Amino acid sequence: MQAILNFDVLNAKQRQIRSSFPDDHGLGVHRALSWLHRAELAGDDYDAAFIFYWIAYNATYADDCAEAAASSERGIFDDYFAKLLALDTSEEIYHAIWHRFSGPIRQLLANRYVFQPFWNHQNQVAGCENWEERFEASKRRIAIALAGQDTRIILTTLFDRLYVLRNQLVHGGATWNSSVNRDQVHDGARILAFLVPLFIDLMMDNPEICWGAPYYPVVE
User: Fold this and answer.
1) What is the domain partition of the chain in residue ranges?
2) Which of 8, 104, 179, 187 is the most exposed place for a label (fewest CB within 10 A)?
3) CA separation for the pair 183, 181 (Å, rounded)
4) Residue of 213, 203, 197, 211 whose CA lies nearest to 37
């Protein structure tokens, strides 16, 4: 397995090869690296680190095409991860999911507090009275994926859960440095800190792949 990637390593690599990047690709990588750098500067402030890592992640997959706009966030995750996993010939993502972070990932997937239907029910959203049944069904699907080591399903479901945590933080649904959600924020930040640089590295190695156009291009 390769050494752990960080901003300094990826930024040096980007400077060497960026002249070969298509404009949209170069902009996405540049933006992702800038937020990766800011996330690393957050240190032990895991709330801030999580948010900045998530922005870096968003910069890697943002696509302004009509199909993406009409799709669910989960569908976008799934397509993006399928592309990354096909390119990850060294299986760095696989090892992160099944070995390096297997414990924290299993805990997040079994945590009802990052399962959106649970919160929909708490907020009296119609149609979510059966959230417990849906949660149990989700856990059964996860168990099948775990047994079959289906990395794409686990990765997509993981980011589905992390997206709920992201919403809690970004929309003011949590207290900064709160003890209430500390474990999931801490674990989420650590997982993103490892995976997001891997995603950026794979994208830089494959500029010929269509990664989509940024939502907000530079307009002069």
Assistant:
1) 7-205
2) 179
3) 6
4) 197
Q: Which residues contact 54 (CB under 8 A, 6 or more apart)?
A: 162, 166, 192
Q: What mean pLDDT is reported for the chain?
A: 90
Give the number of other Cβ atoms within 10 Å of residue 211's Cβ: 20
The DSSP secondary-structure symbol of 49 reads H
pLDDT, residue 215, reads 78
**CB 12: neighbour CB atoms within 10 A?**
9
Whole-Å CA distances, 123 to 109, 116, 126, 127, 181: 21, 11, 9, 11, 18
Give per-residue pLDDT as tens, 44-77. Answer: 999 999 999 999 999 998 655 444 443 466 677 7
Is the pTM above the cut of 0.85?
yes
Is the CB of residue 97 less than 8 Å from the CB of residue 81?
no
